[in-house]
């Protein structure tokens, strides 16, 4: 890919001033895949396209329904029955014609992507995460259930990034961060046994979402509070983590949100997800390592690390 044109410089002027021409060039040559079209991933896709990534591939052949119209502002009644990925691709091409937007297929080769984003399909998450690890592709999982959401980031065993300091003598330091695979994080034990200290170090919501992901090892669909309680307790017990670190109240509130999307919450989590993907690609600052949870009821956005 050639040098950035004058038109591109004019279009992306503000962000080039923020992170520099080298970072913008990395964005321009990047290839990102989003698996799963929801209110969350729509927000992420919009932000990535506006930032000027090179290629965006969308994968979600499910047909648009009336429910989609309530939470995805690019869809209207004329789109009902059409594949989500095809329709969103058309809408995003209008948003920024300089970005190549493609529609992919389930099971396609992932080695050509720089980052794969997997949204909401919890039962497939570990399989995709494992494939990305093997191919050396950065993997990000995310989901939003009503008023709650999460992001998980795996940049592999070695991720290089630049960290800048301001002041009288600004400087830039090259740093290395190590990440943990999704499967290892889901089974990671914690050294702390005190419930009070555990809650200070880890948001209880992270264990709820981990329990939801843990379900990918089992069969069926989690659609009741009792099933979610069982999965969360099972996940905690398998790692010798005290079960009362997660109050039944928070599991109940998440269970009430199963199968729902709340656009403002999806916008916050989707915006955060896009920000972390930009960090990964531009190598400016360290991406989340490795969990982020958002609780819209409390207004809490918390990050933590769960690794062996």
Overall description:
The chain has 308 residues and is an alpha/beta fold. Helices cover 43% and strands 19% of the residues. The chain contains twelve helices and ten strands. It has helices spanning 6-11, 13-28, 39-51, 66-71, 84-95, 122-135, 182-186, 195-201, 204-214, 225-238, 248-256, 263-282, and strands at residues 31-35, 55-59, 100-103, 115-119, 138-145, 148-154, 159-165, 171-177, 291-295, 300-304. The strands form two sheets. It has an eight-stranded mixed beta sheet, with helices on both faces. Strands 7-8 form a two-stranded antiparallel ribbon. β4 (115-119), α6 and β5 (138-145) form a beta-alpha-beta unit. α9 (204-214) packs across α10 and α10 crosses α11 (248-256). The chain is globular. The model has no long low-confidence stretch (mean pLDDT 89).
Order of helices and strands: HHEHEHHEEHEEEEHHHHHHEE
**Class derived from helix and strand content:** alpha/beta
Shape: globular
Mean pLDDT: 89
Radius of gyration: 20 Å
Cα distance, first to last residue? 40 Å
Keywords:
12 helices; two-stranded antiparallel ribbon; 10 strands; eight-stranded mixed beta sheet; alpha/beta; 308 residues
Reconstruct the topology from this structure:
Layout: H1 6-11, H2 13-28, E1 31-35, H3 39-51, E2 55-59, H4 66-71, H5 84-95, E3 100-103, E4 115-119, H6 122-135, E5 138-145, E6 148-154, E7 159-165, E8 171-177, H7 182-186, H8 195-201, H9 204-214, H10 225-238, H11 248-256, H12 263-282, E9 291-295, E10 300-304
Parallel strand pairs: 1-2, 1-4, 2-3, 4-5
Antiparallel strand pairs: 5-6, 6-9, 7-8, 9-10
Helix pairs in contact: 3-12, 9-10, 10-11
């Amino acid at each position: 890919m050639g040098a950035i044109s004058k038109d591109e410089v004019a279009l992306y002027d503000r962000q080039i001033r923020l992170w520099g021409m080298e970072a913008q060039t990395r964005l321009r040559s990047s290839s990102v895949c989003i698996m799963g079209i929801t209110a969350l991933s729509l927000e992420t896709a919009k932000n990535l396209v506006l930032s000027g990534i090179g290629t965006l591939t969308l994968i979600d052949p499910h047909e648009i329904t009336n429910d989609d119209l309530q939470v995805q502002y690019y869809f209207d009644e004329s789109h009902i029955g059409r594949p989500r990925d095809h329709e969103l691709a058309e809408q995003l091409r209008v948003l920024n014609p300089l970005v190549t937007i493609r529609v992919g297929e389930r099971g396609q080769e992932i080695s050509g992507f720089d980052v794969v984003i997997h949204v909401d399909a919890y039962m497939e998450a570990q399989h995709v995460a494992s494939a990305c690890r093997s191919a050396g592709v950065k993997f990000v999982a995310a989901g939003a259930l009503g008023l709650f959401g999460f992001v998980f980031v795996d940049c592999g065993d070695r991720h290089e990034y630049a960290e800048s300091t301001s002041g009288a003598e600004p400087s830039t330091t090259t740093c290395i961060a190590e990440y943990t695979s999704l499967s290892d994080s889901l089974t990671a034990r914690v050294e702390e046994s005190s419930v009070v200290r555990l809650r200070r170090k880890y948001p209880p919501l992270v264990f709820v979402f981990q329990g939801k992901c843990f379900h990918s090892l089992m069969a069926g669909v989690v659609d009741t509070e009792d099933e979610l309680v069982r999965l969360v307790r099972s996940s905690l017990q398998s790692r010798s983590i005290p079960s009362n670190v997660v109050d039944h109240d928070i599991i109940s509130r998440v269970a009430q949100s199963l199968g729902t999307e709340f656009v403002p919450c999806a916008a916050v989590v989707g915006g955060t997800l896009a920000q972390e993907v930009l960090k990964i690609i531009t190598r400016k600052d360290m991406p989340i390592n490795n969990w982020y949870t958002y609780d819209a009821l409390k207004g809490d956005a918390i990050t933590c690390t769960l690794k062996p």
